Structure formats: C-alpha cells, structure tokens
Amino acid sequence: MQFPGAALFIDIYGFTSLSKQLTAQGAAGIEQISILLNTYFDRMLSAIDRMGGEVVQFAGDALLAVWTVDPDEHSLEEAVLSAARCGLLLQRQLHDREMLPGLLLSLRMSIGAGDIESALVGGLDNEWELALAGEALSQIRACSAYAQAGRVLLSPEARALIGKRYPSELTEAGSAFFSEEKHDELESDTKQDEGAILPDTVQATQVDWSAELRLITVLFVKFTQPANQLDIGQLQPATIAIQQAMKLHGGTIHKISHDDKGSAFIAALGLPAHTHENDAFRAVRAALAMQEQLKEQGLGHRIGISTGLVFYGSIGNAVKREYTMLGDAMNLAARLMQHAPEQEIRCDAVTREAAGGGVWFREEAPVMLKGLKEPQPLFTPLGLTGEARSSGQTLVGREPEIAELRQRLDLLAQGSGSYVSLIGEAGIGKSHLLQFVQREATARDMTVLRGAADAAEQLTPYYPWRSIFHALLRLDALPEEEDAKLLAVLDTIRRSAPDLEHLAPLLTPVLPFAIADNAWTKPMTGQIRADNAHALMVRLLGQFAGEKRAVIVLDDGHWADSSSWSLLLQAAGALPQALLIVASRPESEQVEAGEQASLQLPSALTLRLAELSRDESLALIADRLGVERLPDEVGAFILSKSEGHPFFSEELAYAMRDSGVLEIRDGQCRVLRNLDELSDVHFPTTIQGIVRSRIDRLPQEEQLVLKVASVIGRIFTYSALDGTMPVAGGGEKLLALLETLTEANLTLREPSDTELTYLFKHVITQEVSYNLLLHSQRKQLHGTLASWYESQYSDLSPYFGLLAYHWSKAEETDKTAYYLERVGLQAQRTGAYQEAVGAFTALVGGEAFAESSASMAKWRRMLGEAYMGIGDMANASDQLCAALTLYGRPPASTPGRFKRDIARQAARQLLHRVIPERLVGPFSQSRRELLLEQSRCYWRLAEIAFFVNKPGDNLYHTLHGLNLAERAGISPELAQISSNMCVTAGIMSLHKLAKAYINQSLRTMNQIEELSAEAWVRMNISLYFTGTAQWRESMDYSGRAMDIYEKMGNRRYWEACSYLMVKALAYHHADFPASTALAAKIYESGRLSGNAQAKSWGLLAQAENAIYNDKPPEALRLLSEAEALIPIHIGLTEEIRLHNLLALVHLRAGGLDEAKRYARQGLTLTNQSAATTYYSFDGYAALAETLIDLWQQESGDRSESRSAMDEAIGILRRFAKTFPIALPRLHACEGAIAWHEGDRDRARKLWKRSLQYARKLDMPYEASRTEAIMWQLDGRSS
After folding, report:
1. Dist CA 948 CA 367 (whole Å)
2. Which letter, b or e, does each residue of 645-656 get, where b requires 16 or more Cβ atoms within 10 Å of its Cβ?
3. Which among 257-261, 704-708, 1086-1090 has the top mean pLDDT?
4. Residue 1175 DSSP code
5. What is the pLDDT of residues 1116-1145, one digit of tens each?
6. Axis-axis angle for helices 399-413, 430-443 (nearest 10)
7. Is 1091 exposed, middle or buried (0-12, 13-18, 19+ CB in 10 A)?
8. Contact in structure between 265 and 256 (CB atoms under 8 Å)
9. Widest pairwise Cα distance in the chain
10. Against a cut of 0.90, is the pTM above it?
11. Which of 421, 575, 750, 973 is deepest in the core (most CB within 10 A)?
C-alpha cells in the first residue's frame, strides 16, 4: 500500500548509556529501565495520538510515527506541520529532563515528507511482519546525521512545504531545524500538558514485572539494496527464508526495524519460549541457513550476530504496546551488520565462544566500531564442523551390568529387542548406566527415546511417555501453529496405522495439544479407552522401531502411573525390534507388579544394582575429585561412612573438599587437617546430611535457587524457575547462578531442543533442598508456581495432576478440588483406574473440598466407578451406596424395607407405563442432571448385582434407576437402563413387559444417537432374545453390538457380545467349529486384557463344544485351565458351570469319584444361586445328566443319589421356566428317568415333548441329542 504522508522519527538520546548504568544496579536497575522507557513512551504516544499521528513501530529506544494525508480533509503540508508541532511540543516537555538524580535524557527528531509504502510480508505459520519504505523514510535516513538533541530536524522536502510559514535554521545539507521560537499554535498544547510533565521520581507502582534481563543471541539482517528500491516481490521470499531459518533452529523474528539508519530484520534466540542451552550455536546455524537462501535469491545482504545481556520487556501504553530489546548486544549486532561485507556474516567473540566447536570460524582483524573504546575482534562463520558434544561423568565400575547392556545392544543391532529392568536404591548408579546406554546406542547409530516419571506427576496418565512421543513424532521440527502440528500427527498415524486412524484423539495424553474426540472415541472411557490408546501407541512405537533400531528408556519408574507401566509392559511384549529399559527404586508397588508381569516376557532381564566394591569406590572418588589417587586415610574414612554407596561416597568427598579438609591442586589430593584428627571431624552420617551440609555452604542466592527449583521438580526449566523466584533478578544473573550450581555438581544441564532445562543431579538433592523450606515458604512457592502454569498454557489438561499437587501444597482447597476432580475424570477416561481411585479418595477424604453434599456424592459415585475399573466390587458398592445416602436416597438396610422399596418403585414404574405423559417433569437443567447423577449410581449398582449374581439387588437398583432416568427425560442413561429392565423382565418371565422395555430403549437410542448407548442396548436385547430362543433377532442385535464394540475397542463388552454369538452358533446352528473359533478369540482377548472372567467364558464355551462333539480329554484340558482361574474371582455363575461340567467330563472319562466330588460341589453352589443368565444352561444340564447317570449306576441304597438327582432336575425345571431353551434338555432328562423307573409310555411322551420343543425353538442339536437317547434306550427314534 502506498500513500502520501509525513514521517517523524524520535530517538531517546542518552538512553543507551543510561541503561548501562542502570543494568549495573541489578534487579533495581531493571525496574527503573522499564519505568523510564514506558513513562517516556507514554508521553510521546499520547502526544502523537492527540495530534493526529500514528506510531507504526518502536525501534529500540526510538519510534517511528506517520501522519497520513487524506486529500478530502488536509494536505501534505498540514501533515508535516502537525508532525513538526508534535515534535516541538515533546522537545519542550522532555528535553534534558532529569529522570533520576544525575541522569538526563533528551530527544532527537527527524521529519520526512512524501510517499510512504507499507506491506505485510512473511506469513509462515501465519506470522506477518510490517515492512515500510518510501520517500519519507529515505529522507529521514539521508538527513539523520544532522539531527541534534532537543531539536526537530526537517528534511529538505519537508522544509520546502512549511518553510514559508515558519522560519527555520538551515543545515549545510539543505535540511533545517524547526524554529524554537514559540508559536501561538503550540501555546495551548504546551500549557495543557505542563501539569503532566514527567516527575523527578518515578513511582514503584509503575513497575512492569514482565521486564527482565535476558542472555540472548541477536541477529541483524540488512539488505544492501536501498530500501526505496526493494519491492515486495523481493522482500516476500527473503522474509520467508529468514522465518524458516529461525523456526528451524528454535528462534524468532523480533521485528523489521525502521530507524534513521535504515531497515533491518532483527531476530533472536533466548527470548521466552525460544531459549535453549546452545542459543549461540543455533543462531549461527540459522544465519548460515538464511545466508544460503538469500544468495540463491540473488539478494545482497549483511548479517551481524552478537550475544549478551539485554533488557526485554513491554513498552508503550494503551495507544500502542509491544515488546522490545535494549542493550549493548543489540547495538553491537547492528554495528557488526554494518561492518560486514556484502553476502557475509560477522560475529562477536562471545558468540564465537558460546557456539563452541560445532562451527568453523575465520578470525578477522580487530576493528574499531562506533560507540566502543577498544578494537573489537570479529569472526566469520564458514560452516558446521559436525563435532559432537558430550557431557556426563566417567562411569566407574559396573562391569557386569555394562556387559549385559552391551549384549542387549548387540542383540538389537541384529534385529532382536528385549526388556531390561534396572532396580536399585536412590543414588546407586541407575542414571549413570542409562547415560552409558544412551552414549553407546548413539555411537552405534541407534535412536534413543527417553522419558522420565516425576514425583509431582504421579497422577498424570502417561506423563513419562510424553517426551518419548514428542521425539517419535518429531514435534520440535513441526511449525509452532497447533493446526499444522495436528495435521502432521494425523498424517503420521495415517501412514503408520491407517486402520487405527479413528483412534487419533487417544494420543492426547502424550501430546502438547488436544485432538478433539470423534464419534468413535467420544464414548470410550476407562479400560476401553486405555486398551485402544495402547493399541495405537504400540503400533506407532512398533512402526518407529521397525524403521530404526530404537532404544526406549524410562527413568524413575517408581513414580510412573499405572497407565505408563501398562503401556511399557505391553510394548515390551509387542515390539520385538526395540530395547526397552526401565530404571526404578525397589520399594514401589508398581515396580513389583511390573517385575511380576515381566516374568512372562521371554527376553526380560532384571539387573539389581548393589554397592560398589572397595576398589571401584576409591576409583570413583578419585575421578570425581579430579585426582590420580586418594590418600589411604581419606579413602578409608569415606568408605567407613558410605559403605560403597556411589552417591554417598561422591557427596562426602565433595563435602570434605568444600569444608577445607581436602585440597585439590595439580591433580593431587592433600589432607590439610591433622591425620589423627580426621576421624574426629564431624560429617553427617546420612546421604541427606551430606547434601544438606553442602547446601549450607552455598551463598544465600544459590541456596534460594535450589530451594525454588526443588518445588518445581527433579527436572525444571529456566522459565518455570524464573517465573517462581520470589525476588526479581532473572536473566544473566539467574543463568550464572544455575551455572555455578552445575559446576558444583548439584544440578546438571538437561539436553533439550525446546527450552533451557536443568535437573537435580540426584533426587536426594531435590528432597533435601525442599525440606529446608519453611512451611509458609512452601505454600507461597507452590501457589506462585501453580499460577505460573495457569498463565503459561491455554490448554491445562496435560497439567491437571501437577496443578492439583501444587495447589494442594499451597493449601488452596477450592483449586485443589477443582484439579483433583479433573485428574480423576481424566484418569478414569483413559483407563488409569488406580490413579482415579487415588484422586477421588483424596477428594472424599477432604471434607473441606466439598462445597455441598451433592459434590461429595458425585465424587463418591466417581470413586465407586473407579473401584469397578480395578475389579474391587465391594468397595465400589460401598461408595455408590454412600453417594445415594448423600443424595438422600439410602439403600434399604432391612429385608422389610427392601421389599417395601421394590413394591413402591414397581408401582411407580407401572404408573409410568400407564400414564407416560407423567414421566418427565418440568425440571431445570441442574435438577435434570441431579436425577441422572442418582440414576447412574443405581445403574452401576445394578451392574454389580448382575455380575455377582444377586437378582434381587439387580431388580431393586434397576427399578430405582429407571424411574429416575424416565423423570429426567431422554438420555443415554435412560436407553441403557431400559434395556437392563428388558433383561430383568425376561428373567421374571414377563415377556410382554420385556418387549415394552425393548421398544422404549430402541426409541430412546434412536433419539440420542450415541454409539456406546446403542451398543449396550443392542447387547441387552440380544441377551433377552437368546434366552427366549429368538435366534435371528439375537444374532442381528449381537452382531451389530459386536461391530460397534470392536470399532470402539471396548474389549470387555465385545467379549460379552461375542459370547452371545458363541451360544447362538452352538444352540441354533449347531455350528460347533465356528462357535469354538469365536470362543477361542474371546479367550485370547481376555488373556491380552487380563480379564479372567473373559478367559473363563472362552474356555468354558470351548469345553462345552468339546463335550457336544464327544471329546472328553479336550474338554478336561480346557476345564482344568479354567479351574485355575477360580482364585481370581471369575464369578459364581462361572464357578457353577465349571464344577458341573467337570463332574460330567470325569464321569464320561470313568472317574467316578471325581465325578461325585464335583457334582456335590456343583449342587451346593447351584443352590446358592438364582437363574439369571441363559448361558448357565449347559452347567445346569450337565449337573442333571451327571446325577441321573450316578443314580442309575448306584448298586446299593440309592435314596441319597435319588434325592440329589431330583434336586438337580428341579433346578433345571425352574431354569427352563425362565429360559425356554432348556425345555428340550429338561424333558429329555425326565424321559430318561422315567425309562429307568420302568414307565416306558411316560418316557416316550416326554421325549416326544422334548423333540417338539427342540424343533419349535429351532435347536437342531437338542433334537438330535434326544433322538440319540431314544435310540440308545428304546431302540427307535421319533
């Protein structure tokens, strides 16, 4: 865009020297810089705005403003006059103002007139830069050398426009100073502002706490072609090249600066969110990259790079505000840019040193640069050396462990992965071994993916895996824009796991951004969500390991959440081409459980680290002190205290050195105290004491840094530390303190491509530092840190656990409760049930958390569901009942009340059936949600009652939940619990009522269109139809439910639906091979998920099919495996089936005694249970058949066996009243009894009835079985 106008450039004269003096004052000086600059700019911005101008850009301690010309309102002459009048007004107000005692500032101004061009250039990741050019700016640059403090300089063109009206003082170049003679037009404005002249003392309340000193590397890039000749067609690709280079290397463009020297790109590394441990190295690499691109574009340029401390903070006021950088490094980079030959780069000595050995530099002859007293050494970067940097201390001892780890790396090189567990106490050397693995693997061109758990993140699902997937998905190399990252991640999934693309949202816990749920993942919760997440994560890990020889390392496993351990062990079993290593302390329950699970892995190896030997300990101490050998008495003293513990030995040696007992000089160790007195020197006798003694010797500032860092965690970033420090003083001072702590071996620099990161060398150092804080200090720091996190991230979901932890330590109950609830919900949704139990237990255990009984009730319901997730039905039931009690609905505690409650709820349900318009009340949304919340409690209790085979409780809770859900209106809860009632009505043989509930559940399902509800409804309807032998309907409904659950990855309910299909295939089609194959899949699914009940379903169904096919040995093998699952609580129904089937199989195999034993146990268990599941049929029938045969074979008194047989037939008869599928077998058994009693006619009538039912119910196997009995006993068939 091009327009005529006047341009005013204002430079705060004297600010550079002023900022140098203030910077030397430390934190107080930083405050003053922010105050001074903002106060000065506030005055200038306000005046420019009031007099019709617009500030288009700040340029360090200067600004550029324009007055545009609107031909319909005023002329270019009037625009120049307005700019001149504004400049003169500001000079009169601000010239030689004593801002602070002895510190004077003034202004230099230049005005140009003519065409002004502006354009937005760049656009990479939607980041645009403002570029300005044109005649007006060229005039300012041409005459700026003649500008003077306290005066307003007009370019020749500007003077020509207003010189006739206002006399001016000419310069030799034709420019002129606007007259200092007072003009009437200025009198009113000057007087108006007299009362607002800057005060002599600036108030502290004006401090901008965001201002700070930062160690940055700055790049100035200037094009050698004159700005007025540089068109947008050239500037646009050049800007893109600079943006790409800075993005790639972790930096950012600060601005395109327009000042009296011209225009230049200013870019930097070291600004917030762009700070790394090797910023200078990255900056030089970025400069070399942009140099190459600009050369290809044929664009002349010069680049200057400087590293140093700068002021970084916001400047301006409500009219315009932006961040700026000020300091010697800025000035030096600009001077280096001006001095550089065309197409070349010049660096200062600090940048060259900080870049290290990774860049080839050519040293140039020192030169004098403007504003500097001494000649400056210059360096030209020529390219990268490729030199690798290494850090870490020498690994001493551990030869057996090193040999084992090398062998595992050798196997990986040959394509075979494995699982290694390093277990040892704190400080025993686990981290050093992990560093060895990383170095060794890198040297072998293997890829290492490393993650670490954290004490403060124990409730955060998958926390240690975040950095692993961050590296695997190469998130650092992607653009910063979230949409671009999202597309890149989705593309990776599409290429690596196309069949799992719909599961992409499940990666959210390991990503720095959220992927919104879709129709498939939205209904996934709990174990279903966890199983699917693991499937996708393992597939991505497997794809990566298949392409590269991958070493996956997880440190501090004792702090990892259960989801992380589950994923680790699943990955270990599924990734044959990856080496997985986890390092842990031995005392964790998770570690012990992981060790037990890893025993199933054929390639698992556990390395338990013991103390070092005497020689190894002495070698370690000598290495850490940097000496060839230790005096014998020193070694003996340390070993007597440390007993071979590496970290203890090391810290004790440091403590002796720091306290002056030892002197280290020229590689030799000398004892400065009398050797006889050495044993009397008091040293702490614990590791914690040693560390504390070292911290006590640090200066106060360094101690404070350690203490604040300890609140953040073992690993801490510079920005989090800087944001939490209770006193000002970041920037170079804080970096220097951190460097000192690193040199003292208390902290280490952690490699990171995203942010400057440190870690405590050992967690004990963190713990000791934290324990030195007073309670009040901890509260304040935890609160400050939590607030910092809340202010830094728009999406806080990855930090819920961390925020709950810090707010709890800050004793902020409302915020703690807020985040704990979200931690619990997040954990439950991802299947991390142990963590969900922990979060909700904390909530229900803290009475101060609950704002109301409704909140506490909701938390107890959530805790109950979490207990269900881990299979603890007793605690789950207790919590759900407690929730209902808090809602004012305590479950019945006596048999009498239990019956009255059922009668009352049944009557209410009958009323709902008769007068459906009274179902839904005119409830508010909050009241409706309360009803649904209560309904959920009953629904879960009904589910528990079904699985523990308590039909009375099932009916009680289902009626309550259904009545509440119907009052609340259409909802997934209503659809699901209506389908539950369909099954319950069927069990009660109320088939007309069951069909009414089928219709209600289907109608509601179609209105809500929610997949999980649809699958649940279809599964329950199929369950009802199977029990009533409506095979086509049953298979249709179960088939659709199976498809939904399989797509959702809901393994638990897929297994249940598939079991319906297994029995339909057997009972209806007599397709035993297909039924057996599907049962085997159910077994395998249960094995993978650890669901013992599903495993038992698969085994029992296969055994029943083997019995049908007359294969007793195969059936016995399967049943024996199922019997081993009984201690895992597979359920009473499964135990009954198992005992009864074992009785029949042993009888057919000739094991009469075993048959009798299992039959007695089966009969006892069967009498303890009501018939609630159709698939119990085979077990009930097996018991009856076994006892008939035992009665028939009895030679003596048969009264006892007759009684047992009659009891079994009575049980089967009652079962058949509920589930008609048992009728053919019942009458076949009754016919056999009649035959053996000699009543042949009755036997034939019963067999005929059996055949009629078998054909009516379309059960071909039952028909053929009855005919076989008839042939065997009667010698004829039907």
Report:
1. 88
2. bbbbbbbbbbbb
3. 704-708
4. G
5. 999 999 998 887 667 778 888 899 999 999
6. 40
7. buried
8. yes
9. 141
10. no
11. 973
